[in-house]
Amino acid sequence: MTQNALLPARADDDGSLVQRVLDGEQLAFTVLMRRYNQKLYRLARAIVRDDAEAEDALQDAYLSAYRALHEFRGDASLSTWLSRLVINQCLTRKRRHERRQSVIPMVPSPADEELDQVAGDESGAPDAATDRAQMHSLLERKIDELPESFRAVFVLRSVEELTVEETADCLGIPAETVRSRHFRAKGLLREALAREIDLAERDVYGFAGARCDRLIARVLARLATDGSRSPA
After folding, report:
1. What's the gap between Cα 191 and its chain centre?
2. What pLDDT shows up at residue 118?
3. Helix (H, G, I), strand (E, B) or coil at 123
4. How far apart are CA 103 and CA 82, in angstroms?
5. What residues have CB less than 8 Å from 154, skipping those under 6 apart?
6. Residue 18 domain flag
7. Does the pLDDT at position 119 exceed 90?
8. pLDDT in tens, 127-164
9. Is residue 100 predicted with pLDDT exceeding 50?
């Protein structure tokens, strides 16, 4: 028996929290959700490519987990078990969505329209926070363009920083497949971002739109205030 096996379980470790939920302590389930919300949301978002849909999928996965928690035997980590529930929920939603789209023409989602608006807005001088938001939007859009199998691997490995083995366990694929997909995903992202940079370089130090209008207005106002003579 190892030394760790002799130590009592911590009240906030996954196993103890699961037992407390099974004993009827709902607050313990809240602790578990807060612990895994970000990781599981990112995984869902990578699969369904829509913020609201990912949140709904995560909600339904949690409900399924709560109802089936008595079936959790600890053969895999709780994180892996929850990840598989999220993946299953996302894939179910995607299949349902594809069936609907075969009958109903697809229309742009509000999230897509917001991203397009951010990407196309060239007015004003963005501050640092706006720059970061635009970079996040660009990166998210490029991740969304990756093939589905690459997106999930990239998010788990590069964003959530899971090991190759943990990622393979979550997705139910060989470790070597994780390595190859992660390598390919990073290559595709680098190529996509490089193209965006090449296009952006053509507009570097741009001075148009609101900035141009603002300067002209200031000059005209100054001329009117100073009572400047007409040019010779």
Report:
1. 20
2. 41
3. coil
4. 32
5. 46, 143, 146, 181, 182, 185, 186, 189
6. yes
7. no
8. 566 667 777 888 888 899 999 889 999 999 988 889 99
9. yes
**Residue 166: domain span:** 110-206
Q: How many CB atoms lie within 10 A of CB 141?
A: 17
Residues present in the chain in total: 232
Q: 33 φ, ψ to 5°?
A: -65, -45
First to last CA, the chain: 97
Amino acid, single-letter form, for residue 94: K
Checking if the pLDDT of 96 tops 90, the result is no
Residue 130 lies in a domain: yes
A 10 A CB-CB count for 31 gives 15
Pure H helices in the chain: 14-22, 26-48, 51-68, 78-101, 110-120, 128-144, 148-154, 164-171, 175-201, 209-226
186 Cβ contact partners less than 8 Å away, ≥ 6 residues apart = 154, 158
The conformational region for residue 46 under phi > 0 = left, psi -120 to 50 = alpha, else beta, is alpha
Cα dihedral sign, 30-36-42-48: negative
Q: For residue 127, is it within any domain?
A: yes
Per-residue pLDDT, 102: 53
Neighbours of 225 (CB within 10 A): 8
Q: What pLDDT is stored for residue 148 in this prediction? A: 87
Q: How confident is the model at residue 226 (pLDDT cuts 50, 70, 90)?
A: confident
Residue 216 placed within a domain: no
Q: Report the candidate in 149, 159, 155 with the shortest Cα–Cα distance to residue 181.
A: 149
